[in-house]
Specification:
The protein is mainly α. The chain has one domain. The chain is 52% helix and 0% strand. Helix 1 crosses helix 4. The C terminus is likely disordered.
Length: 94
């Protein structure tokens, strides 16, 4: 019996994003995912105001989804808080 990995929170949204990126032949990136899904990310973020903690949580989910979908080698995990939060206020972007 094969061991199945536990799917991260938001797996279906990540999966849709990876499919969208693949259709356009672009490298999936966490920064772009956050930019395209700002509402989802903002509504479902953990109870912390620590930017590195938030980034780490989302990077882990993004990475786990890439592993499950066998696309780990073709992703970019870099994230720019100012770019990712371009549609809203972020204190590090002043």
């Amino acid at each position: 019996m094969s061991q199945q990995k536990k799917k991260p929170y938001g797996f279906d949204i990540f999966k849709s994003y990876f499919a969208w990126a693949s259709e356009r032949d672009i490298v999936p990136s966490l920064s772009e995912f956050v930019q395209l899904n700002t509402d989802f990310v903002a509504r479902s973020s953990t109870q912390t105001s620590d930017l590195s903690g938030l980034e780490g949580a989302w990077a882990k989910r993004f990475d786990l989804t890439a592993k499950i979908l066998n696309t780990k080698e073709s992703i970019s995990q870099s994230i720019s808080p100012c770019r990712a939060f371009a549609s809203g206020y972020h204190p590090d972007c002043e």
